[in-house]
Design goal:
This protein has two domains: 75 residues, Arc Repressor Mutant, subunit A (Orthogonal Bundle), CATH 1.10.10.10; 149 residues, Up-down Bundle (Four Helix Bundle (Hemerythrin (Met), subunit A)), CATH 1.20.120. It has eleven helices and two strands; from the N terminus they run ααααββααααααα. The protein has a two-stranded antiparallel ribbon.
């Protein structure tokens, strides 16, 4: 065996035999780069509120939790800053971003326009197979909602996005929504925490699917926009109640 190949194989085997500390944030060595995997782990931790808004992110601690180098952590933090999930604060470093009420409103308003347009196009351009895929996704989200499984709801909602944008052949709309996707997922978690939101969501999704089956673009768009607006109201109500609670608990 050539020396270089033998050295590479030896290094690879030694890497796999490292005794890594078990941690839910720990990054495994797979095909994705360490920066990508570290970024995915941190993003999900922020969305799950493991790192709540306002949390200072200390590089040394993240290196230990993720099991990656400081370079990988810094690259991940820069990427999450570009997604507006974290802010770089002078003399403090990276901090989990806090959405303002105006930002919440604007994100939902942009969603309503872009996603409504995609739904309108989906109804007329999607294949029969894509409409069936959408129906199966709606069936899965109904099951998840009945079990109050928020993680599954969020996962299926992401799949519904992909089905609709692909069926609508709306690459530009999809790209614009993708630029907001991390904050959209964060807000979805907030709105789903509202009492009764699961049942309301399912009532809102039925007319969307019905319009898709009838290939009624105007009706599907209107139903989706109504769904987004109700999610916005739930998120804002939850946000305001949280702010009030924090103010009540804060020392004068």
């Amino acid at each position: 065996m050539p020396l270089l190949v033998e050295m590479a194989l030896g290094n690879s085997l030694s890497g796999h035999t490292e005794n890594l500390e078990a941690d839910s944030l720990h990054v495994e060595r797979h095909s994705l780069t360490l920066r990508q995997r570290a970024c995915d782990k941190l993003r999900q931790a922020i969305i799950d509120h493991r790192f709540p808004p306002g949390t200072r992110l200390i590089e040394r601690d993240l290196c230990e939790q993720l099991g990656v180098s400081r370079t990988s952590v810094r690259e991940a933090l820069r990427h999450l800053e570009s997604e507006n999930l974290i802010k770089m604060v002078p003399h403090k470093g990276p901090v989990v971003a806090t959405l303002s009420l105006d930002e919440i409103r604007e994100i939902y308003e942009v969603r309503a326009v872009l996603e409504g347009l995609a739904c309108e196009k989906f109804a007329s351009q999607a294949s029969d197979e894509e409409i069936e895929l959408l129906q199966r996704a709606f069936d899965r989200i109904a099951s998840a909602a009945s079990e109050n499984n928020h993680r599954e709801i969020l996962q299926v909602k992401a799949e519904i996005y992909q089905i609709i944008f692909k069926g609508a052949k709306s690459a530009i709309c999809q790209g614009l929504v993708n630029s907001l996707v991390s904050r959209i997922e964060l807000l979805r978690r907030v709105s789903l925490a509202s009492t009764g939101r699961n049942a309301d969501m399912m009532q809102e999704l039925h007319p969307i699917m019905e319009a898709a089956r009838k290939r009624d673009g105007n009706a599907m768009k209107a139903a989706w926009v109504a769904h987004v607006n109700k999610a916005k109201n739930a998120a804002i109500t939850r946000f305001l109640s949280t702010q009030t609670a924090e103010e009540t608990l804060s020392p004068i």
